[in-house]
Amino acid sequence: MGTEAVEIFYTNGFSKICNETHQTINETHPVDDSWYEETIDDDLKWSFALNRVLHKGTSIYQDFALLDTKRFGKVLVIDGKMQSAEVDEFIYHECLIHPALLFHPNPKTVFIMGGGEGSAAREALRHKSIEKVVMCDIDKEVVDFCRRFLTVNQEAFSNKKLNLVINDAKAELEKRTEKFDLIVGDLADPVEGGPCYQLYTKSFYERILKPRLDENGIFVTQAGPAGIFTHKEVFSSIYNTIKQVFKYVRAYTAHVPSFADTWGWVMASDQPFSISAEEIDKRIAERVDGELLYLNGASFISSSTMNKTVYLSLLNETHVYTEDDARFIPGHGVAYRH
CA-based Rg of the chain, rounded to a whole angstrom? Predict the structure, then answer.
């Protein structure tokens, strides 16, 4: 999902392209009869009505905006692609964080690559055993922006267990010597010219990421659209790339309404994923503070069963991400446009 810029479309058919940097529109002044539009593919677009544009800006790495929408509440958009929406971000973040932590026998340390909005850290910090969460995001402007405007995560940002690092995740992992129970890829989708497609490559997983996992360590990453028509964009390639590096790999999916698609995640380890739905539910009750809104044992087991088309694509995929041979979803990062 994604366009190259935030576009506000008025009912008269003309659009206002938001190219200015760091413009904030006062919440008391709505933008009447306006729509936000994303290009899902060359012949398919997804649009939703706006109440107002709360903030938008451009860092050296990416464009970002916070929109107040009629259907989905506050929406974070980076490089023209919706990252999360207030009403359903719990689906994405529960699926990203909790399965891996529940499969680990006793997780204490987490390293999050990306995750600048703070929601992944919020979910990890709900686990009672967690002692340290390192959130490493390359873009200070986006992190500061999220800390200011996404009030739902302010408690997570102020948690003493959270260690916020502004750095390239690859460089940060390379220089660190400690190992982690869980490493999370809460990265933007691989787009041409975007800041993070190299963090989806086989060499990165093999040489840098895997050595930073402990013996029972688990790696999990968001893996892009996984719908019947979109799973070959990046999902099957990310899955196949991770299969080259880890002994046990499990893909799973969930529908995220604000993404207008099914979304995919891939979890990997050199230890088997062998607990039942009943044990997952037991661990949720014992380990997690508060109620999960989406995930339970049965839903996770079902989410890792692919339909026939996606199953065969994952089985037969041959592409492996490298620095010189990457796949991208529609949309372009800032570097590409400059």
Answer: 19
